[in-house]
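Minutes, methods subgroup
Present: GH (chair), OT, SY

1. OT presented the first of two proteins processed in the latest run. Sequence and structure tokens recorded below as shown on screen.
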Amino acid sequence: MPKAVKFILGVFFLVSFLILCRSLFLNLYPDFSQYYFGAKAINPYLNGVIYPPLALIIFHILSLLPFYVIEKVWAVLSLLALLASVFLIFRLYKKQLFSSLGLLVLGLVCLSFPVKFTLGMGQINNFILLIFVAAIYFFNKKNYLSSFLLSLSFAVKLFPAFILIQFIVMKKWKFLFTFVIFLVLLSVFAFIPIGTKVNLYFYQHFLITLLTGWKTDYYNQALTGFIGRSFVHNFFSVTLVNLLSIFFILVSCLVVFKSRKNKQLVNMSFGLLITLNLIVNNFSWQHHFVFLIFPFLATLFYVLKMKNNRKWLLALFVSYALVSINLVNPHAVPILLQSHVLYGAILLWILEVYFIWKDSVPLRLGFPVKVRR
């Protein structure tokens, strides 16, 4: 029976993977073409590029090769980065990737729309996912390569910013110091090949546009997208976004702080902060939710250790389904249903908050007290 189940799950993964591989045969990857041709402009930030200067170095290198060749290479490498990310997460939890569980997870990953969207658009997300997953992996191994990788993630994508909260509450000052040093060095390095003018333009004029402004498109599944589609943009809607964002941030900080003594919850806390990032960003396009792969798996491995876990597995699957589906014609459904990805992310956030809070070590008079189970 176990062999039959593994065979069925193997077929499920293979079919899902082949469906995903159709992205490798597209005629155009819109976002990648923007990277490729935008990097050749005198000022890429006036030609649609939205990434920090260090990313421009990567795009410049790519633009030295023929477009029709490098776009396919980029797509294949992006797919490999996705698979490598899942492999690293399984290795972090000492799980076999090509087990029945691994095949099921790989199949579900391949079917997820944010994953398909990332590949189909030629997005950089899978590479960023691999970088910060590797950073978390090496942090667990107490390797300072972790701080460099996290700084690289920030220098290229400015993501995931809230993950620094975990290092602060754990008082990992050496880690934070090396992170800042690496980030500064990478940012300064970008001045050499990119030039002062473009770098200063990014920091003086363009960066603020990434931190402000709302996008009401269906593909923006952050809190701002939900509020922007549901209400007129005025003082009330802005205040509502700010209040809800403050709520999510404060609760997350409280939970992470409460769990700081429990090393078993560190990765769950990382996942919580990554989920938080996507919820409260000024905009989180659907392809950005590929970053939820780490929080989903961290939560899944936690739930699998529990007894009578069927209701939690069901809740986690509902969260996955809400995040993973796509509405071909979103305007044909009520506005409230257009934020299904946000609802899935919030459900995942609630599960993470509940599990971390439940298993955190309570404090009395500043001294940890063991919880009886």
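2. SY then presented the second protein from the same run.
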Amino acid sequence: MSTKNISISWSEFKEISDLEKDDRDLVIAARDISVKAYAPYSGFLVGAAVRLDDGTIVTGTNVENAAFPSGICAERNALSTAVSNFPSRVPVAIAIAARNSEGLTADPVSPCGNCRQVIAEEEFRNGKPIRIILTGRNKFQVIENGGSLLPLQFNRNSLKSNCL
């Protein structure tokens, strides 16, 4: 038997002015779009902004549905829009902002498991990391790649190696 260890590291900033300009632009876009989310059931509005390799910014929000599994998260919405409308471009960064009844959440909110899987798939598909910027009122967290949020991930290699 052997024991393995997984660790994650990120950069944390207190002020938006401490972020790189491209990251600041994404944070602002994610915050701005979050107010347009459709979340009548949870009241939890999320916005995501994806920067493509040519500098284009694509946004998305969470969209809830009375049949709860039918909704979509902001991150998946933004990435799906980017892939659909800019098929030759590669996502290089995503910023995520969330609001509740008090406004922007105090601390950053991390992507759910489904969104982590979609981010990981995009990284795998393009062979490039996606920088993740999580934003809250009190701090900003920057993670250099989505794979850090989803260790031991399932991908197309898993399908090939596990077939009978």
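Chair's summary of item 2: The chain has one domain: 11-149.
Next meeting: continue with the remaining queue.
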